[in-house]
């Protein structure tokens, strides 16, 4: 998959994702003191803008120029939008700014080798003591969950991500499969509407 595919997906007027942050990102980052953060594969910037609203200075990177333009437009409507720097970059090959306090990778969809490169590059951008957080579609979601990519080569498990970082020896705080409730018509259910379960993998660790 290349940037052009994602440009086409983001080209519509509506947001592909919600303006609200991913629930796991919000839960895991809410208690962290603000500092410098990277949002890798940021899409339209929902997590980056949420972090900025909590006092973080954020570099938001994605390889889709269209997604970044939509993120900039959202940022222009928010008083904290100037806390986000938007950067077009390939997560597998870029050289991110160093000494970050937090790195977030949310729903990065790459095959094993490219994922490993992106994960290791992102982790290495942290300062010692910085937090690494990855949330992604779990491989089990294909058979046991709902929605998400239907290509098993871009799905992963928490164990895969820990293997990517094995020689870095991070302090692992969480590494597990987590449930995410999905409503057919968006974030909020309509009366009588039943939510379905999607399965994500979540890895949170600290650079040693």
Tell me what you see in this structure.
The chain has 208 residues and is α/β, with parallel strands linked by helices. The protein has a single domain (3-9, 22-206), classed as 3-Layer(aba) Sandwich (Rossmann fold). 28% of the residues lie in helices and 28% in strands. It is built from seven helices and seven strands. The chain has a seven-stranded mixed β-sheet. Helix 5 (112-124) links the parallel strand 4 (100-106) and strand 5 (126-137). The longest helix is centred in the middle third of the chain and has 13 residues, at 112-124.
What overall geometry do the principal axes of the alpha carbons give?
A: globular
Tell me the count of domains. 1
Strand order of the largest sheet: 3-2-1-4-5-7-6
- How many helices does DSSP assign? 7
Query: What proportion of the residues form beta strands (DSSP E)?
Result: 25-35%
Order of helices and strands: HHEHEHEEHEHHEE
Q: What is the C-alpha radius of gyration, as a whole number of Å?
A: 16 Å
Query: Into which percent range does the helicity of residues fall?
Result: 25-40%
CATH architecture annotation name? 3-Layer(aba) Sandwich
Q: Give a quick account of the main beta sheet: strands, pairing sense, barrel closure.
A: 7 strands, mixed
CATH superfamily: Vaccinia Virus protein VP39
Poorly predicted regions: none
Average pLDDT figure: 91
The CATH class is Alpha Beta
CATH fold-level name: Rossmann fold
Span of the ends, CA to CA: 33 Å
The tally of beta strands, per DSSP, is 7
Q: Pairing-aware structural class of the strands and helices?
A: alpha/beta
